[in-house]
Structures are given as structure tokens and as C-alpha cells.
Amino acid sequence: MKLFRGSSEKPEQRTVSRPAGQRLTRRSSGLGEVAKLFESEETLCVLDLGSTSAANIRYLTERGHKIYSEDLLDASTDPALVIQDEQGKPTLDSKLFLKENLAYSGTQFDVVLFWNLADYMDESLVRPVIDRLWSLISPGGVLLAFFHTREAGPDSPCYRFHMVNNDTLEMQLIGKREGQKGPVTGGFQLQRVFNNRHIENLFRDFSSIKFFLARDNIREVLVVR
User: Fold this and answer.
1) If both were cysteines, with which of 13, 22, 110, 134 could 18 make a disulfide (CB 3.0 to 4.6 Å apart)?
2) According to the model, what pLDDT value does residue 164 have?
3) What is the CATH classification number for the domain harbouring 199?
């Protein structure tokens, strides 16, 4: 696993492994900020970049907003994406990936729920995906992302997030996929750990960025287009 060192956060508590499908509850300061937008009487267009969540659909539609859902993490496992780079090492074809995903011609989003995607997606796709999202977010629109701190550990399980209320999420463990080997508890392995500087660089084209440090070794980030 490639680690980007330099994080200054102190360890607090580690996430405990749970059976796939079981849900944990966590408070989210970042979601609390985004939820202020959801209370608007104006209809917002929201992109949820995780597998379909009935809870998220219900939460947003009850408030009169439109929601689009796309599971980019699952889509990134398509074997057809695997190519070789200039050194002959395997990588993923980001152009093909973006041709088949995040194709919303003429649609702009007010809110993107990026969740923990950057930590678990193959590195070759992270920057192209962020660049595509920048073009899809309306000026003044926001993106909410979660990043692990280095104290989280390489076997940190991958969760799907479901909105319960304005500042509370349920975390559903994504189980191992068929044929997956190794000690990883969830279905996807943590690929890297970003420190603040790397996160700021990742979102360098956005107008502002705000950090929230949670107690479960998660750094929440809210960026504005």
C-alpha cells in the first residue's frame, strides 16, 4: 500500500471490524454543514457516488431534491479497464473509465457526496475523477469527502454511508468480493493515506476547502466549486 506521509493527527480510536452488512452509527460535522443546503426550498441536484442507498434517496426526496447515484468504486473493478503504462506496469485506463462513468451531459450538480472514494479507488483514477467532478459541479456547489488518517491502518474496512438525519450517518461494511484474498475485512483495500497538503492539491481547482477531524481516524473535507 502506498502511504502519503506527513499527517499530524494523533491516534484516537480504531474502527472495529464488523460482519458485512452490519451498520455502525457516526456523527458527521461535514454532513451537518451540507445539510444546511438540503433545508433550502430550492430543488437541488445531488450526486451520490456510492451504491444505491434507499436511506439517502428517502432523505433527499423527502426534502424535494433530485438524487443521482453511481457506484464508481464498483465500476473501477471492471477488468476491461486494465492496461499497461509506459513502464509495462498494470494500471487502469482513466479515459475509458470516464467514457463509461460520470457521463452527465448538460447536468450540473449542487452537491456531490464523494464519501471515502479517493482512499479506496486505484490511484490512476483519482485525479481524473476529481477533474471530471469539478466540471460537473455548478459554481458555488459543494463536494463532501472522507479521508483516513495514517493511524487508521492498512486494513481499515470500506463502508457505504447512509444518511440518517442532518448530522448522522450509518456505516454499512462492504463485504469481500468473490475471489478476493487476504486479511482485508471489507470488499476494498485502503490504497493510500492523504495528508492535508495532498488533499489541498487534489482539490486545487476548487475555490475553498474546509477540514473536520473526526474521532474515528477520519478527516472530513468540504470543498466549494
Assistant:
1) 22
2) 95
3) 3.40.50
